[in-house]
Amino acid sequence: STPSASIGKPPKPHPDFPLFPHATRRWAKKVRGKLHYFGPWADPDAALQLWLDQKDELLAGLIPRVRTTGSIALRDIVNHFLEAKKNAHKAHELSDILFAKYYETCKRVIDQFGKDRLLSDLHPSDFGVFRDKMAAKWGPVTLGCEIQRIRTIFKHAYDNELIPVPIRFGTLFKKPSRSVVRIHKSLQPRKLFAADEIRVLAVAHSRRRP
Q1: Residues in contact with 193: Cβ distance below 8 Å, sequence separation at least 6, in sequence order
Q2: How far apart are alpha carbons 167 and 173 in whole angstroms?
């Protein structure tokens, strides 16, 4: 049987309730061809309120602001960030490669801290541990790019008023210095010329012949 068939879905609280019970055990609604979720079956009143809060923005094709009276969870800012990047990608303002990199970075952040982790619970020491973990498997160039992308996710949250104050990363969670990157590059084996570079050199050499 399908997952939806094996789950006893609850009835709507009243006939004109605008949401439907999705198989993921959440109240949902399709808006402009896309599914949106508004909370667990157990709390239809909260789901309805969230729909009413976000209705105008969703119908207008906008990304809803995350309205919360308490601390926001990591999954909320990651989803908001990815939705913005997805829109930029569709508008050809973001390359396929960079969008994929942002997606993988978001996944690593969620895997590291947990999707339900409250941002108010993140401490600079958490980011220090995260950096050490990444530094153990990557060189300084890759590490620096990843740290910059991670910072961009949290900056997006602050710039879009999802969080009241910027995230404190601490003094350790920063990109490797230029001198570290320079030394690392100098220790790497010299790369052979690529095929197109060899052709350019061959042409230049032939032109120098008497």
Answers
A1: 201
A2: 12
Q: What is the DSSP string of 14-27?
A: STT-S-EE-TTSEE
Write out the two tokens for 31.
């808006």
Helix 96-113 vs helix 140-159: crossing angle, to nearest 10: 80
* Cβ neighbours around 28 below 10 Å, total: 18
Judge whether 114 and 90 are in contact, CB under 8 Å: no
Question: At 66, is the pLDDT very low, low, confident or very high (cuts 50, 70, 90)?
Answer: low
Q: Which amino acid is at 124?
A: P
pLDDT at 6 over 90: no
Tell me the chain's radius of gyration from C-alpha atoms: 24
Q: How far apart are CA 37 and CA 20, in angstroms?
A: 10
Nearest by Cα to 75 from 26, 112, 100, 24: 112
pLDDT at 179: 77
Model pTM score: 0.59
Tally DSSP H helices, then E strands, for the chain. Answer: 7, 3
Looking at residue 176, its pLDDT comes to 83
What gap in Å lies between CA 38 and CA 44, rounded to an integer?
9
Q: Are 148 and 134 in contact (CB under 8 A)?
A: no
pLDDT-derived band at 2 (thresholds 50, 70, 90) equals: very low
The pLDDT-based confidence of 102 (bands split at 50, 70, 90) is: very high
DSSP state of 14: S
* Cα distance between residue 170 and residue 125, in whole Å: 7
3-state secondary structure of 21: strand
